[in-house]
Amino acid sequence: MPDRIAAHYERHAHAFDEARRKNFVEKAWLDRFLLGVPKGGHVLDLGCGAGEPIARYLIDKGRELTGVDASEAMITLARTRFGRHRWIRGDMRHVVIDGHFHGVVAWDSVFHLRSEEQAEIVVKVAHWLAPGGAFLFNTGPARGEVIGCQFGEGLYYASLAPAEYRALFAEYGLLEVAFAPRDATAGGRAVWLARKPQ
């Protein structure tokens, strides 16, 4: 099922983009994230979609963006809107990116991967982050798999247990800053904010 995610968002790119631009529940978390990302700092957005509203907010706050998304339609929209930033059509599980980032965001994206693939993303992010860099992402509140519904189609979600994410942080040198298992202000999402020590 995770391998069908890109096709799902490709089919519904414009409908998703229209809905997403009206739904900016993550602002407070992005503000916390930006406390660890200097002005002019470089942010990697995994599952960036069409760049609204997250990339726009980060760009407006003076950060440089590299966005990765598996949907060509989404990346095309992002490139059209924010042409001076870097947009890569690719699968976050396999994309090769050089350099380090002051922050990595994976809002509403990593949780579409299988739990073992999510663990691999945490490891990649730990290597991509510069010292002091921040990592903001969503999971489920507990280990499991569910099929949700979006635009009348099934959509796969999965999660490790919180203790498993914490074990990955400990092994790969990330520090937990905050975890909200069901944040009502963010639409009930489970939200993590972690940081790489200086």
Automatic annotation (TrEMBL):
Signal peptide boundaries: none
One annotated GO molecular function: polyprenyldihydroxybenzoate methyltransferase activity
Domain of life: Bacteria
Spans traversing the lipid bilayer: none
InterPro entries, alphabetized: Methyltransf_25, SAM-dependent_MTases_sf
Keywords: Methyltransferase, Transferase
One Pfam family recorded for the sequence: Methyltransf_25
Keyword Methyltransferase: yes
Domain Methyltransferase: 43-133
GO biological process, alphabetically ordered: methylation
Protein's UniProt name: Class I SAM-dependent methyltransferase
